[in-house]
UniProtKB/TrEMBL annotation:
<dbReference type="InterPro" id="IPR010419">
    <property type="entry name" value="CO_DH_gsu"/>
</dbReference>
<protein>
    <submittedName>
        <fullName>Carbon monoxide dehydrogenase subunit G</fullName>
    </submittedName>
</protein>
<dbReference type="Pfam" id="PF06240">
    <property type="entry name" value="COXG"/>
</dbReference>
<dbReference type="InterPro" id="IPR023393">
    <property type="entry name" value="START-like_dom_sf"/>
</dbReference>
Amino acid sequence: MELEHRFEVPVGVEKAWNSLLDMELVGPCFPGAILDHVEGDDFSGSVKIKLGPIRMTYKGHARIVEKDEATHRAKIEATGNAGGSTSTAAMLVTATATALAPNRTQVDLVTTLSLTGRPAQFGRGVMVDVGNKLIGQFADCVSTKLAGHESGGAELVDVTNPDEVAADYVTPTPAAAAAFGAPGGAAPAAGELDLWSATATPILKRVLPIIAGIVALILVRKLFKRHPDGTE
């Protein structure tokens, strides 16, 4: 799946650009993320996910594979897996910073995401809603770090969903796979990305109209089955 989001930060383009490349600054802004190690353009860490009663910790490796100072455009590849399961995640993020004013910058994020295992069981629409919520939280966190106040969330610009889009663009390399590492002992205290909480509202938005329709149909049928004297 490919998602394109856009948000603004109340700082100049150079500050925004340099901050987006500073993983120690913006990495923790992703809900549930823990940054373990940064060395140059390579960094590793984990993301803790709660899926109902199930808790998973994805450990992985990421690298800034492209940086264009002239266009303020960067590409980041990330791969990871959840210890003790077959669930994997692969992601390619293209970030572009565009100056709108001396103290206002537009950030465009194109995220190509491939998931396997339990999180992949959610439908496309639900994952889009989850992506919107997470990117919105990320945008507000980045804006708060840079300027002391939130950005107002992120706008979903486009969604592309060829089944193979992520596989075509993001394939875990042997080096990245070797960098996964085992989950180890107890996870560090940190925020947890609650996928059920993030998906509950989108799911209810889809299910409630169906339930309401069924209830209405039952009431109509009962109404028409009544006799003139009010009996059925």
